[in-house]
Write a structure and sequence with these properties.
It is built from 15 helices and four strands. By secondary structure, the chain is an all-alpha fold. It has two domains: 163 residues, Glycosyltransferase (Alpha/alpha barrel); 173 residues, Glycosyltransferase. Strands 1-4 form a two-stranded parallel sheet.
Length: 396
């Protein structure tokens, strides 16, 4: 029986490699489905669509937000340079059995209030959220004000000499008494995966120009090189759980943004065994995430990263959607394992110390409905409201 499974796995892997030459690479955007975007723009009445009206409202609110910068913090990183990104590990607390509380000890899933005293992560997330809404609003309306404000926010965060972030994460998720920073702190900025599409949506605006684009690509290239070559980067991709998945999603996306397609291709192939083979069990569960005190939250977060990895791989011409690991499981089984609890969250049999939120699965359901031609997934997605704008809510 073991020989059968090994042969099946081998054939699945070969099928994956063959499929690499059968899918046509995407265009315009890397994670967002360009064809869905264009179809929605052509078919939806922007003035009456509840979803578009809500998006424009969020973009208008973003017009009043910012600027954002890592230099706005009051807590200094170990280097003393405010332009170095720094945060404290969220689940680490003073040791009650030592006089000075050092070294801190881990309480998984319980956030130490000290974590919120470090504002760099909030600044980054707020910036990404704002430019996402602004770029989407620009795509639908062509109003230059949205692209212009998005451009200014990006310049302040990445390029202006006095407010720019230095292109590394050496001091992310430091732990008092233990370390000045950790590789797993890279997950702080996992929404970097959205930045390439933001740039794609606004790069033809009047606000964007070749010089600005070159400067941002230079910053991203330096940051990407740090991700790929630093000890922190090696720690992150070797972690074996959601940190590994998000690391690959981020590095592939940024490789594409910087027009390093060969590197993106190599990363996508290296990620396959590290993500699908090692992280999804035969029943579709994610054993590494189920060990956490927030097992639902981490399972969904990791599945989102897996789906974004698959979308980026599809752009490169690789069909990860149909790939099965040695256990016979893949991305669809990963979704099905979680989806069975949408209507009965109280039956989730694993530890979840915070309220289980089924709406967090909405994004994956939408994507799966397209990739697996499963209308039931879309019906489930449309019943959920996570407060975010989803272009797929408007897709036929």
């Amino acid at each position: 029986m073991k020989i059968f499974f090994n042969v099946t796995y081998f054939l699945s892997f070969i099928g994956f490699l063959v499929s690499c030459n059968q899918i046509q690479p995407g265009a315009n955007t890397f994670i967002l489905d360009a064809s869905v975007m264009k179809n929605v723009k052509q078919s939806v009445d922007l003035g009456t669509s509840h979803e578009i009206i809500s998006l424009i409202k969020k973009a208008d609110e973003a017009m009043e937000e910012g600027p954002f910068s890592v230099t706005f913090k009051t807590q200094l990183p170990p280097s003393g340079d405010k332009q170095d990104y720094t945060t404290q590990g969220p689940y680490w607390w003073p040791d009650p059995d030592t006089e000075d509380g050092l070294p801190y000890i881990r309480r998984d899933g319980e956030v130490n209030p000290e974590f919120y005293e470090y504002t760099d992560r909030q600044q980054f997330e707020s910036m990404i959220s704002a430019v996402r809404h602004l770029s989407l609003a620009y795509f639908f309306t062509h109003e230059e004000k949205y692209a212009s404000h998005a451009t200014e926010l990006l310049k302040v965060f990445f390029l202006d000499e006095t407010t720019r972030m230095n292109p590394h994460l050496k001091y992310a998720q430091k732990i008092p008494g233990l370390t000045e920073g950790r590789g797993i702190g890279i997950i702080d900025v996992r929404t970097f995966t959205y930045l390439p599409d933001v740039i794609q949506l606004i790069k033809n605006s009047e606000a964007w120009n070749d010089s600005l684009h070159a400067s941002l690509i230079s910053w991203i290239s330096e940051y990407l090189q740090w991700l790929l070559s630093s000890e922190h980067g090696r720690e992150s991709y070797g972690n074996g759980n959601n940190h590994t998945t998000w690391y690959y999603a981020q590095t592939i996306a940024l490789s594409l943004l910087t027009d390093q397609k060969q590197r993106a291709d190599s990363l996508a192939k290296a990620a396959l065994p590290a993500i699908i083979d090692k992280q999804i069990a035969a029943d579709g569960s994610q054993p590494h995430e189920l060990r956490r005190t927030l097992s639902w939250g981490y399972s969904v977060m990791n599945l989102v990263a897996m789906y974004e990895y698959a979308l980026l791989s599809e752009y490169l011409g690789f069909d990860v959607w149909q790939y099965k690991n040695e256990a016979g499981a893949g991305l669809n089984e990963g979704l099905e394992f979680l989806a069975q609890y949408i209507d009965k969250p109280q039956t989730w049999p694993y530890e979840q110390i915070k309220e289980l939120d089924p709406s967090r699965l909405k994004y994956c359901l939408h994507i799966a409905s397209l990739k697996y031609n499963t209308p039931a997934y879309k019906r489930s997605a449309l019943k959920l409201d996570d407060g975010a704008f989803h272009i797929y809510d408007l897709a036929p």
